[in-house]
Specification:
The chain is an alpha+beta fold. It has three domains: 117 residues, Rossmann fold (3-Layer(aba) Sandwich), CATH 3.40.50.20; 137 residues, 2-Layer Sandwich (D-amino Acid Aminotransferase, Chain A, domain 1); 93 residues, 2-Layer Sandwich (Dna Ligase, domain 1). 32% of the residues lie in helices and 19% in strands. It contains 14 helices and 14 strands.
Length: 365
C-alpha cells in the first residue's frame, strides 16, 4: 500500500510531530508498505522514513510559534503538501501533524476536498477537540465531569490566528500585568479564582496540545505572566480550575477503550518538559487503581470520544482526585507516537505492538 505520512508542520508541536512521523514511517515501512513522509513546512518535498532521522528530536521547550519551521528553507504550506505527488498518489494519508492546522480540522478538510482517505477523526471532531472550550461544553451535555473554566480573549495575542469570539469571553486589550489585575478583568465576570474557590489555577492556550503554554498559577501575582505565556500561542486563553490528584489517560482504538495509563511526573506538574524529557515522568499501565475506577475512566473516555464524533483512535486525558473522582481534561485526536507516548504503551498492554498499532490505524482509515 502507498502511504503518505504528514508530519512536522508549523505548529508549536512541530518537534513532537517530527518524531511521531518518523516512528510511524519506519513501522509502516517495516510492514512492507511504500511510505513517504511529507512536511508541510517544506511543501511537497517527500522523504523516506530513514532519511527523516536527522530532524526528529524533541527539545526541552516547544519551538517558537512565530518561526516554528526553524530552518526549513523557503517553506511551503499544507495546501502544497496535499496537492503534491506523494499525497495525491497515496492510497491512505497518515496524519501525524500535532496541533495547528494538522489537528484542528484544516488538513482534514483539505484531504476531504482532495478525495483522500486519511487516519483519525474528521473535520468537525478535530475542530471540536482542539477547541477546549467547545469540547468542555459538549462533555457537560453528556455528564462527563470536567474542571470549571473561563476564557480570556487576548485581542493582541501573538499566536493563534483570529479565533472565535463568544459572549462569555473576558476581553483583555493588552497582554500586560497592569491590564490583568482583577479589577481590569472584572470580578463581575466571574472568570477566575473567586469562581473556582481560589488558587491554584491552570492557565493554558484554548487550542494547543502537548501542554504547550501551560502554567500552574499558585497565587494572583503569577497570573499575568501565565496569561501572557498562553497568549503567545493562542488568542483565547483558558483559565481552569486546578484538580489536585493523579494524572490518568485512556487511549481509544476502534471505539474500544485500552487500559488506563497513570502518569507520575517528577515534580508534580506534567508540563512540556516533563512530558518529553526521558526520565522526568514515570508511567504505569495498566494503572494500579480499583477496577471500578478503571471501568469508570474507560466509560467516560468513550463518552467524551463519542460526543465529539471521533473515529479511528484518540487519547482522553483525566485528573483523578484523592477521593477517586475523575475529571476529563481533553481529547487528543492526533496523539503522540514517540518513544514515551501513551497510546503505544496502552496498546502494548493488550498485546498490540507498535507496527501492528499503526497498521491498524491505517486499516481503520
Amino acid at each position: 500500500m502507498k502511504i503518505a505520512v504528514l508530519y512536522g508542520g508549523t505548529s508549536a508541536e512541530r518537534d513532537i510531530s517530527l518524531v511521531t512521523g518518523r516512528a510511524i514511517g519506519l513501522a509502516l515501512a517495516g510492514k512492507g508498505h511504500d511510505v513517504l513522509l511529507v512536511d508541510p513546512a517544506r511543501g511537497d518535498a517527500p522523504v523516506g522514513p530513514k532519511q527523516a532521522a536527522a530532524a526528529a528530536k524533541i527539545g526541552a521547550e516547544p519551538p517558537d510559534i512565530a518561526s516554528p519551521g526553524g530552518g526549513v528553507g523557503e517553506g511551503g504550506s499544507a495546501l502544497d503538501a496535499v496537492r503534491g505527488r506523494a499525497v495525491t498518489e497515496a492510497d491512505v494519508v497518515f496524519v501525524a501533524l500535532h496541533g495547528g492546522t494538522g489537528e484542528d480540522g484544516t488538513i482534514q478538510g483539505l484531504l476531504e476536498l482532495a478525495g483522500k482517505r486519511y487516519t483519525g477523526s474528521g473535520v468537525l471532531a478535530s475542530a471540536l477537540a482542539m477547541d477546549k472550550r467547545a469540547a468542555k461544553v459538549l462533555f457537560r451535555e453528556v455528564d462527563v465531569p470536567t474542571p470549571r473554566w473561563s476564557v480570556i480573549r487576548c485581542d493582541d495575542a501573538v499566536g493563534g490566528g483570529g479565533g472565535p469570539r463568544f459572549p462569555d469571553d473576558v476581553p483583555v486589550s493588552r497582554v500586560s500585568p497592569e491590564k490583568m489585575s482583577r479589577a481590569a478583568l472584572g470580578q463581575s465576570a466571574g472568570w477566575g479564582a473567586d469562581r473556582f474557590g481560589g488558587y491554584p489555577l491552570i492557565v493554558k492556550p484554548n487550542d494547543q496540545g502537548s501542554t504547550v503554554g501551560l502554567t500552574l498559577v499558585r497565587e494572583e501575582g503569577e497570573l499575568a505572566a501565565a496569561i501572557g505565556l498562553a497568549a503567545e500561542f493562542s488568542r483565547n486563553v483558558l483559565v481552569e480550575e486546578y484538580i489536585p490528584g493523579r494524572e490518568m489517560t485512556v487511549a481509544v482504538l476502534a471505539d474500544t477503550a485500552l487500559p488506563v495509563v497513570e502518569i507520575v511526573p517528577d515534580g508534580g506538574l506534567y508540563d512540556y518538559q516533563r512530558k518529553y524529557t526521558e526520565g522526568q515522568s514515570s508511567y504505569t499501565c495498566p494503572a494500579l487503581i480499583p477496577e471500578s475506577l478503571s471501568s469508570e475512566l474507560e466509560r467516560l473516555a468513550l463518552l467524551a470520544y463519542g460526543v465529539l464524533g471521533c473515529v479511528g483512535y484518540a487519547r482522553v486525558d483525566f485528573r483523578v482526585t484523592d477521593e477517586l473522582e475523575p475529571f476529563c481534561l481533553e481529547v487528543n485526536t492526533v496523539p503522540g507516537m514517540t518513544a514515551v507516548s501513551l497510546v503505544p504503551m496502552a496498546a502494548e498492554a493488550v498485546g498490540i505492538g507498535f507496527p501492528d498499532l499503526v497498521e491498524k490505524i491505517v486499516e481503520l482509515a
